[in-house]
Specification:
heterodimer; A: 365 residues; alpha+beta; 60s Ribosomal Protein L30, Chain: A; Phosphoribosyl-aminoimidazole Synthetase, Chain A, domain 2; 7-stranded mixed sheet; 5-stranded mixed sheet; 9 helices; disordered N terminus; B: alpha/beta; Rossmann fold; 3 domains; 6-stranded mixed sheet; 5-stranded parallel sheet; disordered C terminus
Chain lengths: 365, 374
C-alpha cells in the first residue's frame, strides 16, 4: 500500500510525540481447523463446509440440486426424501418443543419440493439422567404434530449416551413424500421478473427460543411459529400457480434463504424492507438483543418464487390459511447483480442483504 | 414501535435530506465516531439520501476494533485455564488473537460464555463458588458503569471468585488524536450519543474550541444521523464550531451523575494502548487500587508474546477516517468476516464489516430502481 508505513502496535512512543500518525492493524489471518458453532449456523461457514467436505464426498445428481430435499424418480413416481437433526435448547419453549420441530421441519422440507409428506422416521439420542416425563411430553407433542401434518411416524431408533455427552434430547428425523406436481420446484426454475412472496411474519420462532434462554418477558408471550406448510403449498399448486421455487425460512432466516437461491440461480433478488412482515414484539426483542429479524429462524414460514402475473393470486390463496394470513409480496427477481440480494430500507436507501457470516451475536453497544 | 418508528419515518427522512441539500454549498467531510452509527448508516442505505458534497467517514468508536491484541491473547490464556469461566459480550469472541479467538478456545474446550451484562457474570460467580469467573470488560464510557457496578457489588458481597479483564477506552482523547494528526481531513464530528448519555459532553467543548471543529452529539436511528449531519453542515456553512446536542431526548450536558460517580469510584483514568496506534495518554480506565483484587491481570499474570501483523491491512487508516474500507486492496478478497485481517472486519460495529455486509457489490446509483411494486 503506497504511502502507508507500518510499525509494531503498542510499542511506539506516545502518540503526542509521534510525527507520523500511522494506524496499523496487527491481526493474523484467521484459520480454523476445527468445527466452530458457526459451521452449523446456516451461514457462510456452513456453506464452506458443504463445499469442502460433503459435496465432494457424496456428489450425485439428486444431491447436487441442493434443494431442501432430494427428488428421485422411482417406478414412474417422483419421490422426495429429506432428513434433519434437531438440537434445540431449551427442549420446550413458548409455542412448541423439539418434538414439534422434528415433525414440522422435516415435512416442511418435503413441502418445499412440492411433495405430500407420506412417512416419517425418528431417531432419538437421549442423555442419561433425562426425566422420562420430559421425554413423554416431547413425544406427545410429536404425536400431535404428526397428526396435524397428517403423516404417520413409521419407524424409529433410540440410543442413550453418557451424562454430559448430549443435551437432554437430540432427534433426527427423515421423511419420504410424493411430488404432486409436474413443475420443477427448484432454484434453477427461478426467472428474472418473478415475484418473491413471504408467507408470513418473520422471526417468532427464534425469538420464542431466545426469550427462554435470555429470560425475556413480554406482555403477551411470543409463540414459536412452528407449523406444517404442506396445506398452503398444496393450495398454491391446486390453484394452478406456476410455482418456480419454494424455500422454508429456518436457520439463517429470510436473508440466508434468498441468498442461497440468488447464488444457486445466478440472479439478483430485490426486497423491500417495509413489505416484510415482522410482529411488534419480535421487532422489539430483536432491537433489544441486537438481532436482525431478517436473519432470525422461523419454523413455519417460507418464501415462494412465482411469475409476477400470478403473484396476487398466490398471495390471496395463501392468506386463506391462518399460518399464512400475513403473506406479502415482498420483492422480485432481477438479472443483476447476479448472486446478490438487495434490500430497500425503510427510509428508502439501498443496501446488500448479505448471507449470515458466523453466529448472529448481540452487539456490544 | 414507539420511540423507534418515529426515527425511521421515510417522509421525515426525505424532508431532512432536502434541508441538507438546501444548506450545502461545497464539499464537507464529517466523521461519525461510533460504530453503532456507522452500522445504521450502512444498514439503512443512508448515504443514498445525502447530497454528493457530503462525505461521511467512519470513526474509531468500535470497542472491539481498538482492543489491543495483547488483551485478547490474555483473555484466551485466562479462558484456557481449567478453573475459569470467561464471560464476554458476543462480538469479542470472534476477534482473532495471535493464536486464535475466544471462539477457537471454546472449540478446544475452554469455558467461554456470552453474557448481556457483567452483572450476569457476577451471578455466575455466586452460582459457581468453585470456579473463577472473569468478565472481559471492553468498551467506551457506555459500558463502564455496569462494569463498575459489577466490581462494586463483588466487593460489597466479598465475591472472591470474580474479576474483570479491563480494556476500557475513552472517546475524547481519540478525537483529539485524530484532529492532532497532520493528515486529518475531518471537518466535523457526530459525537457518540450513548457515550455522552453517560459521560456528558463538557469534555467535547474544549475540543470544539481548540480545533475549531463542530461537534454534534448524535443518536443512532436513521433520522438522528440525518439530523446530526444537518446540524454539523449548518455549523460548517456558517463558520461556527460548537458542541450541539441532537440527541437531547437522551443526553444531558452533565451526563448521568450517578453512573459517573460509580465509575469514578471504581476506575481511574490511565494511559491505554489502542489497537494499531499504540499509546494515547489518559485514554483508558483501570481499576483503582482499592479494587485491584478484582483485576484479572493481577490474578492471572501472563506475558503476551509479540504478534505479527498482516501487511495488507489498512485498518488504522480506516479508523482515522483517511480511507474507506473498500479502498483497501484486501477488502472482500484477502479480508472477509470469515478470514479477517483486521478487527474492523470482525465486529458488527466495525466499519469494514458494515461495508462488507451492506455495501459490497452495490450497483451504481443509476441502477437503483423501485424495489417492489411493479
Amino acid at each position: 500500500m503506497p504511502g502507508v508505513s507500518r510499525r509494531q502496535p503498542n510499542t511506539g512512543k506516545p502518540l503526542a510525540d509521534s510525527k507520523e500518525f500511522t494506524w496499523t492493524c496487527p491481526l493474523p489471518a484467521l484459520t480454523s481447523d476445527r468445527i466452530l458453532l458457526a459451521h452449523g449456523g446456516g451461514g457462510k461457514l456452513m456453506e464452506q463446509l458443504l463445499e469442502s467436505v460433503f459435496y465432494p464426498a457424496f456428489s450425485n445428481p439428486a444431491l447436487n440440486n441442493r434443494h431442501d430435499g432430494a427428488v428421485m424418480e422411482v417406478n414412474g413416481s417422483r419421490l422426495a426424501f429429506t432428513t434433519d437433526s434437531y438440537v434445540v435448547r431449551p427442549l420446550e419453549f413458548p409455542g412448541g418443543s423439539i418434538g414439534d420441530l422434528a415433525v414440522y421441519g422435516t415435512v416442511n422440507d418435503l413441502a418445499m419440493c412440492g411433495a405430500r409428506p407420506l412417512f416419517l422416521s425418528a431417531g432419538f439420542i437421549l442423555e442419561e439422567g433425562l426425566p422420562v416425563e420430559t421425554l413423554r411430553r416431547v413425544v406427545e407433542s410429536m404425536r400431535a404434530a404428526a397428526a396435524l401434518a397428517g403423516v404417520p411416524l413409521v419407524t424409529g431408533d433410540t440410543k442413550v449416551v453418557d451424562k454430559g455427552k448430549g443435551d437432554g434430547i437430540f432427534i433426527n428425523s427423515a421423511g419420504v413424500g410424493i411430488v404432486e406436481t409436474d413443475l420443477a420446484i427448484a432454484p434453477r426454475s427461478v426467472q428474472p421478473g418473478d415475484a418473491v412472496i413471504v408467507s408470513g411474519d418473520l422471526g417468532a420462532h427464534g425469538v420464542a427460543v431466545l426469550s427462554v434462554r435470555e429470560g425475556l418477558e413480554f406482555d403477551a408471550p411470543v409463540l414459536s411459529d412452528a407449523a406444517p406448510l404442506w396445506a398452503p403449498v398444496k393450495a398454491l399448486l391446486d390453484a394452478g400457480i406456476a410455482v418456480h421455487c419454494l424455500r422454508d425460512l429456518t436457520r439463517g432466516g429470510l436473508a440466508s434463504a434468498l441468498n442461497e437461491i440468488a447464488s444457486a440461480r445466478g440472479v439478483a433478488v430485490r426486497i423491500d424492507e417495509s413489505r416484510v412482515p415482522v410482529a411488534e414484539p419480535v421487532r422489539g426483542a430483536c432491537e433489544m438483543l441486537g438481532l436482525d429479524p431478517l436473519y432470525v429462524a422461523c419454523e413455519g414460514r417460507f418464501a415462494a418464487f412465482v411469475p409476477d402475473s400470478e403473484a396476487d393470486a398466490a398471495v390471496e390463496t395463501l392468506r386463506r390459511f391462518d399460518v399464512c394470513r400475513l403473506a406479502e409480496r415482498a420483492g422480485f427477481v432481477a438479472e443483476n447483480p447476479a448472486g446478490t440480494v438487495l434490500l430497500r430500507s425503510r427510509i428508502g436507501g439501498n443496501r446488500v442483504l448479505d448471507m449470515l457470516s458466523g453466529e448472529q451475536l448481540p452487539r456490544i453497544c | 414501535m414507539r420511540y423507534l418508528d418515529e426515527y425511521r419515518d421515510p417522509e421525515a427522512a426525505q424532508a431532512i435530506a432536502a434541508r441538507i441539500r438546501r444548506l450545502v454549498t461545497r464539499p464537507w467531510t464529517v466523521m461519525e465516531v461510533c460504530g453503532g452509527q456507522t452500522h445504521t448508516i450502512m444498514k439503512s442505505g443512508l448515504e443514498d439520501l445525502l447530497p454528493p458534497e457530503i462525505t461521511l467517514v467512519h470513526g474509531p468508536g468500535c470497542p472491539v476494533c481498538v482492543t489491543p491484541l495483547a488483551q485478547i491473547d490474555k483473555a484466551v490464556a485466562i479462558a484456557s485455564r481449567p478453573e475459569t469461566i470467561l464471560c464476554s459480550f458476543g462480538d469479542m469472541l470472534r476477534v482473532p488473537g495471535s493464536a486464535g479467538s475466544l471462539f477457537d478456545a471454546k472449540a478446544e474446550g475452554a469455558d467461554v460464555r456470552v453474557v448481556y451484562s457483567p452483572l450476569d457474570a457476577l451471578k455466575l460467580a455466586r452460582a459457581n463458588p468453585s470456579r473463577e469467573i472473569v468478565f472481559f470488560a471492553v468498551g467506551f464510557e457506555t459500558t463502564a458503569p455496569p462494569n463498575a457496578m459489577a466490581v462494586w457489588q463483588a466487593a460489597r458481597d466479598g465475591a472472591r471468585n470474580f474479576s474483570i479483564l479491563v480494556a476500557h477506552v475513552l472517546v475524547p482523547p481519540a478525537i483529539r488524536a485524530i484532529l492532532g494528526s497532520p493528515s486529518c481531513r475531518v471537518q466535523g464530528f457526530l459525537a457518540p450519543g450513548h457515550v455522552c448519555t453517560v459521560a456528558g459532553y463538557e469534555d467535547y467543548e474544549s475540543i470544539a474550541v481548540e480545533f475549531r471543529v463542530p461537534i454534534v452529539v448524535t443518536g443512532f436511528e436513521p433520522l438522528d444521523i440525518l439530523d446530526g449531519v444537518r446540524m454539523a453542515v449548518a455549523q460548517l456553512e456558517t463558520g461556527r464550531a460548537e458542541v450541539e446536542n441532537q440527541y437531547s431526548r437522551v443526553v444531558r450536558r452533565e451526563g448521568n451523575a450517578a453512573a459517573r460517580q460509580r465509575v469514578d469510584e471504581v476506575f481511574e483514568v490511565s494511559p491505554r494502548s489502542w489497537r494499531g496506534i499504540g499509546d494515547i495518554p489518559n485514554s483508558g480506565l483501570r481499576l483503582r487500587s482499592a479494587y485491584r483484587e478484582f483485576d484479572a491481570e493481577a490474578r492471572f499474570p501472563y506475558a503476551a508474546p509479540e504478534a505479527e501483523e498482516p501487511s495488507e491491512c489498512i485498518a488504522g487508516l480506516v479508523l482515522q477516517g483517511l480511507k474507506k474500507p473498500h479502498e483497501c486492496p484486501a477488502f472482500g478478497t484477502l479480508c472477509t468476516p470469515e478470514h479477517p485481517l483486521g478487527a474492523p472486519m470482525v465486529s458488527s460495529e466495525g466499519a469494514c464489516a458494515a461495508f462488507y455486509r451492506y455495501a459490497r457489490r452495490q450497483p451504481a446509483a443509476a441502477e437503483h430502481g423501485e424495489a417492489v411494486g411493479r
